[in-house]
């Protein structure tokens, strides 16, 4: 199976120019196509490394550098999956992805299956994250049998050793902890309301586009793969800072949102509530072809077979062309407890002029357990975020603040002590 970073774009362009648009689209999506010319196998040695067999779908796309330019796959033009970025000779001969996609769009107007972010998104942040006096923003590392991950932790200036809540923030593809912190402004809320924030980072060694591998079956299970690493980071923060083990939460965007849904399904004893922004439900895919199907809304999700439901808040734009909005509904359906006693639907408009529909479902005790925000006209971006980070839409309601409000209304019974 191929990912965007491993696709033979020369072959895609050749097929496009030859009018073989179906074959070109199949190649872009990692689906089997007719046998290619022998010359196309010259890249094969570059894909025989230890991690070459792992699929790497790209969920997010990179904004054009000029107005009206094409959206492109992040990192494309830096060599094949196993190749070093310095292999300029090999990549310079390839047509750019933007050139090929532009040609495909011109000749294949119904190309709705290719991810496209839309408009209004920022560029990847590289400036340092500001830290107020008395606060700390530090890097840590966590390791277990599944591997290791670095993470950033924000400690507000109001921390004096008390048992604080912990919010684990899971970035989207191509993003970093610093970029996600800047775009979501979660550190500002942590400083205002006094809680800890942890930002696990996905390295390129795990996924070339730094996506959390939500589409791998091995990364959807308790005490295995990435879920074990994320849960381990949450537990480590609780231990290091004597945080409140009953008030640990996870939130994420896109691939990070899908990872947050996985954490709710696999670690309901660790996470008291989760937030899923423009993500997908746990088990939506098991490989790259099913990942594309899920992103396009064609996949179905089976119930997890568990009676434990974690309170969940969902944000999703109804104009999202990267992750079909139906996935927001599916996250809610998967998180649905056995019974809810009431549903309240309201309409509203953010200060930035974005209209939305908000649905709240409560249990028999009147406790809010599910909250869904459908953002009308919004694409694939963090609602109400800052342009200092990537993939944000400042016009929308403040997703970070609403998630924190939702989180702080929930505490788990067991905390993070069980392994």
UniProtKB/TrEMBL annotation:
Protein name: PHB depolymerase family esterase
Keyword Hydrolase: yes
Disordered: annotated segments: 78-98, 110-142
Gene Ontology annotations for the cellular component aspect, listed alphabetically: extracellular region
InterPro entries, per database record: AB_hydrolase_fold, Esterase_phb, Plant_Biomass_Hydrol_Est
Coiled-coil stretches: none
Domain of life, source organism: Bacteria
PANTHER family registered for this protein in UniProt: BLL1128 PROTEIN (PTHR43037:SF1), UNNAMED PRODUCT-RELATED (PTHR43037)
Keywords annotated in UniProt: Hydrolase, Signal
Cell cycle found in the keyword field: no
GO molecular function: hydrolase activity
Lineage: Bacteria, Pseudomonadati, Pseudomonadota, Alphaproteobacteria, Hyphomicrobiales
């Amino acid at each position: 199976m191929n990912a965007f970073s491993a696709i033979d774009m020369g072959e895609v362009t050749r097929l496009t120019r030859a009018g073989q648009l179906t074959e070109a689209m199949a190649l872009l999506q990692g689906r089997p196509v007719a046998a290619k010319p022998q010359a196309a196998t010259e890249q094969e040695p570059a894909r025989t490394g230890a991690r070459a067999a792992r699929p790497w779908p790209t969920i997010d796309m990179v904004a054009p550098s000029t107005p009206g330019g094409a959206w492109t796959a992040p990192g494309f033009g830096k060599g094949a999956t196993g190749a070093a970025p310095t292999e300029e000779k090999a990549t310079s001969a390839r047509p750019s992805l933007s050139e090929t996609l532009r040609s495909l769009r011109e000749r294949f107007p119904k190309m709705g299956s290719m991810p496209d972010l839309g408009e209004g998104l920022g560029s990847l942040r590289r400036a340092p994250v500001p830290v107020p006096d008395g606060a700390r923003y530090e890097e840590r590392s966590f390791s277990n049998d599944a591997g290791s991950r670095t993470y950033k932790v924000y400690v507000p200036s109001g921390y004096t050793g008390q048992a604080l809540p912990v919010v684990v923030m899971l970035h989207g593809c191509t993003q970093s902890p610093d970029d996600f912190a800047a775009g979501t402004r979660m550190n500002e809320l942590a400083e205002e309301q006094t809680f800890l924030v942890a930002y696990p980072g996905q390295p390129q060694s795990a996924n070339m586009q730094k996506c959390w591998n939500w589409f791998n079956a091995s990364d959807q299970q308790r005490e295995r793969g990435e879920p074990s690493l994320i849960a381990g980071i949450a537990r480590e923060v609780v231990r290091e800072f004597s945080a409140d083990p009953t008030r640990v939460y996870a939130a994420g965007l896109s691939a990070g949102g899908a990872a947050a849904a996985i954490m709710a399904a696999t670690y309901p004893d660790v996470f008291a509530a989760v937030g899923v922004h423009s993500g997908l439900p746990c088990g939506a895919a098991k490989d790259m072809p099913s990942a594309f199907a899920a992103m396009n809304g064609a996949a179905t999700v089976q119930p997890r077979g568990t009676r434990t439901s974690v309170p969940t808040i969902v944000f999703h734009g109804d104009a999202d062309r990267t992750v079909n909005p139906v996935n927001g509904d599916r996250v809610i359906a998967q998180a649905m407890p056995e019974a809810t006693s009431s549903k309240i639907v309201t309409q509203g408009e953010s200060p930035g002029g974005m209209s939305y529909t908000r649905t709240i479902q409560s249990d028999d005790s009147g406790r809010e357990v599910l909250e869904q925000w459908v953002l009308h006209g919004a694409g694939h971006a963090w609602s109400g975020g800052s342009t200092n980070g990537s993939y944000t839409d400042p016009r929308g309601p403040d997703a970070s603040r609403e998630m924190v409000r939702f989180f702080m209304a929930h505490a788990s019974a067991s905390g993070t002590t069980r392994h």
